[in-house]
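Can you give me the bound-state structure? Components:
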Amino acid sequence: MSNQTYNPFENAQNQFDGAAAILDLDEGTRALLRRPMMEAHFTIPVKMDDGTTKVFQAFRIKHNTARGPAKGGIRFHPHETVDTVRALSMWMTWKCAVVDIPLGGGKGGVICDPHNLSLPEQERLCRGYARALYAQLGPNWDVPAPDVMTNGQHMLWILDEYETLSGGRYPGMITGKPVGMGGSLGRTEATGYGVVYCMKEYLRYTGIPIESTTASIQGFGNVAEYAARMYTQLGGKVVAVSCWNQADKTAYTFKKAAGCNIEELVGIKDSFGSIDKAGAQALGYEVLPGDAWLSQDVDILIPAALENQITPAVFGQISAKVKLICEAANGPTTPDCDALIRDAGIALLPDFLCNAGGVTCSYFEQVQCNMNYFWEKDEVLEKLESAMTKAFKAVYDLAQEKNLYLRDAAYVIAVKRVAEAVRLRGWA
Ligand code: NAD
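Here's the bound-state model for the whole set.
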């Protein structure tokens, strides 16, 4: 993969500039939407188990709240940067707008490695995060969720601290909670299924029977697993999946030309989405280098692991057979590769549309919490499919009408909705 470094915030701003130019947005609106509206940079002192105090740097950024409360995850990562959080908050604004849910964009992060923190230390860190940000959070103002290296337990600690300070129960102030503690059925499946709901529509519109297609996937975590399950359930054939191997500190691709059995691979993966190498070999899978997922002779590529994976440096490895790239991960394609993909005639379902099933279901979680009434899983998934299908159709129709790359069409729809909300509020 390429060694070139990409600043995610610059990428996000460049993408926004492209949409602003197509929409001919006025200078004031551009200036407002190019940057987050509000940034909190703060420190969290945590009493460690050995009696010492450690101070962690944390962020919470609201990019835009014109369409509703800010929505976005909190990441724990030793290499977290403020520019990553800024970019992710901006992408959340567009993501919520493109699926037309009444939420804005936010993101948070703490520079830390939870692997090196005991559970009580993690709890104190989460409670410290909630205390420091208390006035900036709330179901009507800013609604966090789990993200990289945070989970439902972290969310519950943050919620509990927030509720203790507020003197009430506000389960809609945070999402990604465990089912039974305010979480929504269907959230685990939502992002991966949403990827395939979009893909299915694209194939239907372009007259390609899904049963005739093959796919190769990067990653085998939450998103990839459920995308692979839904895709194979609809008749598609996954021929390769790649994932990280912690023991060997390298990535591998597991291939079965006749088609991977997703359930058997799920049976030999760990909770971090790593497939057991020996187990896969015993089941007859070829073990190839980590980047081999990209060069498979398939119809569909599904990057579902990391950012900056499809770059000009590796573009040449993509097979001429590939017709569609479904961006299940956030930012898997670098901006300088978009033109190459477009010129090669490969369709691309952009990340903030393709993986919006997760935030859509988080929105459903918030709605259910606010009503204190929870839907059956089928009802959640039915509403999810309907929202994703509708969002895809709007993007596809605009792309056809104006001859736009699907990413540009998605940006135009999302930015236009946010710009309109900004205008109606009298902000610009
Ligand atoms: P995860 O942690 O469950 O899984 C990540 C997967 O990537 C694992 O299988 C891991 O082995 C694999 N991986 C890591 N490094 C790799 C490498 N170098 N080569 C190949 N595989 C590698 O994460 P997830 O929740 O499935 O998220 C995946 C992507 O989707 C991320 O970009 C995330 O931001 C995005 N996303 C997730 C959600 C969600 O609801 N989980 C929602 C929207 C977007």
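A couple of observations. Residues 191, 218-224, 242-244, 251, 273-274, 290, 304-306, 328-330, 355, 358 surround nicotinamide-adenine-dinucleotide (CB under 6 Å). The first strand starts at residue 38 and ends at 47.
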